[in-house]
Amino acid sequence: MRYALLVSPSSNRVYAQSAPALAAAELLAVGERVLDGAITHVTQTTLGSVDYVTFEAPDLSELSRGWLSNLAATFALYRLDDDGRLSPVDLTRWDQLDSDLITIQKYSGKTNEAFTKLLLNVTLAASAFAAERRPLSVLDPLCGRGTTLNQALSYGFHATGVEVDKKDFEAYALFIQRWVKDHRLKHTAVQGSVKGLPKLEVELGVTKERFKSGDTLRLTYVSADTHAISQVFQPRTFDLIVTDAPYGVLHGAHSGPQTARKPGELLQTAIPVWRAALRPGGAMGIAWNRLVLRREDLARVLAENGLEVCDFSQSFEHRVDSSIARDLIVARLA
Hints:
Layout: E1 2-7, H1 13-33, E2 40-47, E3 50-56, H2 62-69, E4 74-80, E5 86-88, H3 100-103, H4 113-126, E6 137-140, H5 147-154, E7 158-163, H6 166-182, E8 187-194, E9 197-204, H7 208-213, E10 217-223, H8 229-232, E11 238-244, H9 263-277, E12 278-289, H10 295-304, E13 307-309, E14 318-321, E15 324-333
Parallel strand pairs: 6-7, 6-11, 7-10, 11-12
Antiparallel strand pairs: 1-3, 1-4, 2-3, 4-5, 8-9, 9-10, 12-15, 13-15, 14-15
């Protein structure tokens, strides 16, 4: 059968131009890694002056429908009949929390929410847990103001973030506590410390009944250098590690007073720490700027740390601005 995926609109003009190609790449990655190659003949198609990503697939299983419903680009999904008619396919969204958790924050340097979702999806698809619908544990070791944490929580995952910038830590701590209060979600929020480092713990229930029964989502946010992860968390704690490598100097390659300006130096020293925190079968997804770090160099660092780099049939590289050509790389721990 043929299907047509209507790509979600984006207010970011540059990202909107890349969205159809990224949607096709994500679709193929999920098809290859999760759906046993069932997705074929993926192409960008114009139907009635509207752009779609079309593809062929067998009758949709529950697993296929779930993944296709939750691709970062999916606005609507249709079966494309032989006569050109579009028949809507009911979507089964994974989101458990209101969408404004992800969209309401606006600040300079924020990663596009659609790309954050894509990175999380592709990392999940590469892991051993892609077919499971349980509360996975997600770590963003360079989490800024929590875009990845919010997407993980929305999926019903437990979210952990580490961020060295105290202003970002304070801003997100204020935001998330205000958000759960405004949405009248039953929760507990405790600000304290671990190993002398500022820490926020939030436990929330999607419904009052789930909170009372102990069926809760956990958010942990620590203000620390990313290399402190080995001091704060037990080894093999996280199912997924998902992060956007920084382009500035906030995250140094070591914890001393001198910081490294090149992300390659940071990743060289940080990836071994992150790898130790990853469970077997887990996956690590990193977005970075290809203009300042070659893909083969990043792949080499991952491989040297016992991670198997995943090859995808279509590139995720896209232009963000004149100085950033963003790409992603995903590797799995056997």
